[in-house]
């Protein structure tokens, strides 16, 4: 059923223009600190990893945000590369902190076996405002394509471009939250002048594979690792998760490249997008971070065993 849903910006049925986007941005308030939460954690990792600032985003009047990538200190051009990205959607907290936790506690286990490239927080402005979009009301995770209008997406594409052809794996860390249904999907409908169509939020962890390169064994290995930490989302009664057919327990598929999703930016053999559910009564914030770490480790272990 399609419902007319009230959203406090714009006129129902009319796409936003510059004035509405400015009004939306003015409503966003800083709720946490990228410098305190993320940059400080990256600084503590500098002894073990090569840290580079791959871009700097001027989001005046809100501030200037440096974007950081961490690489294996023992980088070896003879080894394959594994990319880990988090915080493409800034509000999806465990993606950011799961990536940092993996670096802190487990990355050294893979030294000499694979080159790690980790971008813990692709969208720092949105991280601070616990939002899905960037300041221009653009979804970074629909914007990974040539000539992207999204600065966050364009910067990551530029970082990865020189390494294409050498990636074995890319895992992109996300969450599906209750606020998707209460805030972000209504905002999307309002921005595009479309009616809001209510959906469902799955209770548990699931993966979005690439329909053009699904790698079912890889997806199943990641879920098997995560299942030791938190529960895997069941399918809805119609056999779907967020409206997409479930192709294996806890796995759906998207055409990643066609949709401009982050997990499409490499030519890696193995790609997936994680989806943690932090609002479940069965999952704590620490458990969500642990689930992301388990997903990274499960992905790396499988990819390295099946190069």
Largest sheet: 8 strands, mixed
Q: Enter the CATH topology name.
A: Aminopeptidase
Say how many strands there are: 10
Order of helices and strands: HHEEEHEHHEHEHEEEHEH
SS content category:
alpha/beta
Please give the alpha-carbon distance between the first and last residues: 46 Å
Family: Belongs to the peptidase M14 family.
Pfam families: AstE_AspA_cat
GO molecular function, one term: metallocarboxypeptidase activity
Keywords: Carboxypeptidase, Hydrolase, Metal-binding, Protease, Zinc
Q: Can you describe this structure in just a few lines?
A:
The protein has helices spanning 18-27, 34-44, 93-105, 124-129, 151-160, 178-192, 216-226, 256-259, 285-305, and strands at 49-58, 64-72, 81-86, 115-119, 167-175, 206-210, 240-241, 244-245, 251-254, 270-276. It is an alpha/beta fold and 307 residues long.
Can you give a write-up of this model?
Pfam families: AstE_AspA_cat. Residues 30-307 form the Peptidase M14 domain. This is Zinc carboxypeptidase. Belongs to the peptidase M14 family. Its cofactor is Zn(2+). Helix 3 packs across helix 9 and helix 7 packs antiparallel against helix 9 (285-305). With 307 residues, the protein is of the alpha/beta class. It has nine helices and ten strands. An eight-stranded mixed β-sheet has the order 1-2-4-3-5-10-6-9, with helices on both faces. Strands 7-8 form a two-stranded antiparallel sheet. A hairpin with a 2-residue loop joins strand 7 (240-241) and strand 8 (244-245). The chain has helices spanning 18-27, 34-44, 93-105, 124-129, 151-160, 178-192, 216-226, 256-259, 285-305; strands spanning 49-58, 64-72, 81-86, 115-119, 167-175, 206-210, 240-241, 244-245, 251-254, 270-276. The chain has one domain: Zn peptidases (Aminopeptidase). Helix content is 33%, strand content 19%.
